[in-house]
Amino acid sequence: MPTIELSLEISIEQNASLYFDKSKKLKKKIEGAKVASEEHRKKLTILEKKKEIEKEQFEQTKVLTKKDWYEKFRWFFSSEGFLVIGGRDATTNEIVIKKHTDKTDVVFHTDLAGSPFFIIKSEGKKIGKKTLQEVADATVTFSRVFKLGQSSSPVFHVSPDQVSKEAQSGEYLTKGAFMIRGKTNYIDNKINLAVGKKDGKLMAAPLEAIKKHCTDYIILVQGEKKSSEIAKKIKAKLGGNLDDIIRILPAGGIDIKK
Question: What is the pTM of this model?
Fold first, then answer.
């Protein structure tokens, strides 16, 4: 049983009054604790429901955005409907050329070392001037030209049989590099980039291709901001995974066109 301490310096009535006041304070504290506990329980319930909803949305997003084989590379669909793929680095440059280039495709590259190879997948169809121009723009946009702040650089296209891994006598080709033999077809180009959503997937491509396939899009330009900062703004408008958005952007300072 609890011990009750009485003060001999005051009367029984005064002792009783002190314990009565203490009991009222304790009662208020208990009631306050109950209220706080109930509020905490409600907040916890709300958070659990929110977590369940986010999990469901995430699972639905995974189903809707099931990755296609070409998403391992840079990719887009031209305004004329041709699939275009490009290397992200030396390794994917090798894969694009060696494993995903057919004899009727068209290969793009810049005169700069370290440029990505871009391939128009023709599927045996005639490739129009619009697609050729869009891919020329994409090739320069995703090359070092963007990072260097330049507006264009020589870009050419050739047939796949002109691309070889065999170096000249006494030379050595590094990973991702190829020899180009025969006539090269140069085409004017410019930095040209936008991001839009096509079939639930975010696509980075020249503006003309984006306008053809995407209702909502953002036009991007060279700038001073980091890719991560711009990626957050793209996500806010178009959705998507932040890491995936950063992955589809070119290297270098970037900004959103006003």
Answer: 0.73
